[in-house]
From TrEMBL:
Protein name, as recorded: TetR family transcriptional regulator
InterPro entries per the UniProt record, alphabetical: DesT_TetR_C, DNA-bd_HTH_TetR-type_CS, Homeodomain-like_sf, HTH-type_TetR-like_transc_reg, HTH_TetR, Tet_transcr_reg_TetR-rel_C_sf
Disordered: region residues: 1-22
DNA-binding region: 47-66
Gene3D superfamilies: Tetracycline Repressor, domain 2
Record keyword Transcription present: yes
Organism lineage string: Bacteria, Bacillati, Actinomycetota, Actinomycetes, Micromonosporales
């Protein structure tokens, strides 16, 4: 046997065997890989070839499960939207309106902190100021929830409830933009401090800011 033939034979023997997974497990693996790549590179710069290579499968396997890159991306985005909405819905346990504002703010910051790939997927191809896109859609849903809360609070205080929608959009937009900024800068490093400052501005206004704001629902660590 020639030296080239011996090297080729040796490479075949030492190459890691392709792992055969059950279909459901393989699908989850591809979703995880796709999520990472879409977060790192964005939708347009990610290819089926890259997904397959990172998952150590052939391209037809990706097509078999999702029909292509578009199908995989749709599944990844849908999961992130539901995960974020679940966090926000679970966080709103009721109580004083200020506490609910804290709960929603902390839920969004927790998601940004704990699921950086997911947040990047939602925002990379849909800027926060865009009227469309996955993240904008989630924030619109949150704003609608906030609108009902603010509307009831406005009525209790004798204020015009028709402005509840405007205020809810302003509050949600402020938290979302600050959350994006904080993800990139990490200043201040503790998300509880960020949340306390946001709630301070939203609840008290510029003319009545507390010098050292705290949180009612979570201790600033």
């Amino acid at each position: 046997m020639t030296e080239r033939g011996e090297n080729s034979d040796r490479q075949r023997r030492t190459a890691a065997p392709r792992v055969r997974m059950p279909a459901a497990q393989r699908r989850e693996q591809l979703i995880t890989v796709g999520r990472q790549l879409f977060a790192e590179r964005g939708y347009d710069a990610t290819s089926v070839e890259e997904v397959a290579a990172r998952a150590k499968v052939s391209k037809p396997v990706v097509y078999e499960h999702f029909g292509g890159k578009e199908g995989l991306y749709a599944v990844v985005v849908d999961r992130e939207v539901r995960a974020l909405l679940d966090r926000l819905t679970t966080a709103l346990t009721g109580g004083h309106p200020r506490e609910m504002l804290e709960q929603a703010t902390l839920a969004l910051l927790d998601y940004i902190d704990e699921e950086p790939h997911g947040f990047q997927v939602l925002t990379r191809n849909s800027p926060l100021l865009s009227a469309s896109g996955s993240f904008s859609s989630v924030m619109t849903d949150v704003a609608h929830q906030a609108e009902h809360i603010l509307g009831a609070e406005f009525k209790n205080r004798g204020l015009d409830s028709k402005f509840a929608e405007l205020y809810s959009q302003a509050l949600v937009g402020m938290v979302a933009l600050v959350g994006q900024w904080w993800r990139e800068t990490r200043k201040p490093p503790k998300k509880e401090i960020v949340a306390a400052q946001l709630v301070n501005l939203a609840w008290n206004g510029l003319s009545h800011l507390e010098p050292k704001p705290g949180l009612r629902t979570r201790r600033v660590r």
